[in-house]
Fold this protein.
Amino acid sequence: MQTDIDPRHLIGRKAYDRNGTRIGTIDEVYLDDATGVPEWAAIRTGLFSRDAFVPLEPSELADGALHVPFERSLIKDAPDFGVGRHLSPEQELQLYHHYGLDVASPPPLPDRDFGKLAGQEGHA
């Protein structure tokens, strides 16, 4: 998604699924803790319904609305963590897996020689 969009300007916009079916209205935008970049949108899916979290990447903002490249049924079945609270790394991971998105794994630790094996002291 365009990163130059102010996340406050997303709130209140309509959201549509990959088929152009209306999902609901954006309630909240969640920023990445490390970068401050908008990462998730919570979409109110109906009058008495809950909010569904959708990834802002690879969604697109076009014609004043958010277009999410997933089926409405997948979006409505997303894990429900409630709105107004911080998303933990574990919750984000669950959402990434739900949408089948690859999560960048941390780089492997360098292979280091941590010294001699136990019991090898004094042997030359």
About this structure: The mean pLDDT is 84. The first strand starts at residue 14 and ends at 16. Helices lie at 72-76, 89-98. The two ends are 60 Å apart (CA to CA).
